[in-house]
Inverse folding.
């Protein structure tokens, strides 16, 4: 009797791209076409076109610019988060200021990258996002940490005070520190000599224990708890 082996193929990640910079949008679409793990679901250069896609096209990840000619990308993030909770939304923009970052996170973004950070890393970034990570540009992560330092009162702590570790294991705290520094799941895996899957699992446990849903929220909560 001949044995047969069934190979289960993982369907490619369906991507929605919304950006009014034609050259950049075309470069992103070209990167998607080169990667067997991704497929372009739809693309648009304005809020109206994006809303049409959200209503009629199935997608797993939305790459959203914030400055669009007929509105604000943050409104799209909020709409996707409300109507398609299983989809990931990653901001890809030139805006790196605190107001845009915080507004995007509050609207439901699960990643935030400056456009210059996406060059040649789109496939890895999307895979990290779908594995439970929250890609964020290192400069944005540093900015958020500096915000914590500004908002944290400088009062001396008693020597016997024990910092609440949130129930995190030693390894999870180690991963959390790398997350706060802006490293990707793949980079953390290499530095800790672990598989990317193991690191992604640690990230999911960190999110659950800190009661957060994204990398940036984890950095906020960890800073508030004194873990960073």
């Amino acid at each position: 009797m001949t044995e047969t082996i069934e190979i289960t193929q993982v369907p490619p990640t369906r991507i929605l791209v919304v950006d009014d910079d034609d050259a950049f949008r075309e470069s992103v679409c070209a990167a998607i076409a080169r990667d067997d793990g991704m497929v372009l679901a739809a693309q648009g250069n304005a809020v109206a076109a994006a809303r049409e896609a959200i209503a009629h096209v199935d997608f797993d990840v939305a790459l959203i610019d914030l400055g669009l000619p007929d509105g604000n990308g943050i409104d799209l993030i909020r709409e996707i988060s409300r109507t398609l909770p299983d989809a990931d939304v990653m901001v890809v923009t030139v805006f790196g200021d605190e107001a845009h970052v915080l507004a995007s996170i509050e609207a439901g973004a699960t990643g935030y990258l400056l456009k210059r950070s996406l060059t040649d890393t789109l496939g890895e970034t999307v895979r990290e996002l779908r594995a439970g990570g929250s890609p964020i540009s290192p400069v944005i992560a540093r900015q958020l940490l500096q915000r914590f330092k500004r908002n944290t009162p400088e009062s001396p702590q008693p020597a016997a005070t024990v910092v609440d570790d949130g129930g995190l294991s030693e390894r999870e705290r180690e991963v959390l520190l790398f997350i706060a520094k802006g490293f990707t799941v793949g980079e953390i895996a290499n530095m800790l000599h672990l598989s990317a899957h193991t690191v992604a699992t640690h990230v999911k446990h960190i999110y659950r224990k800190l009661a957060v849903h994204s990398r940036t929220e984890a950095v906020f909560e960890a800073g508030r708890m004194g873990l960073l």
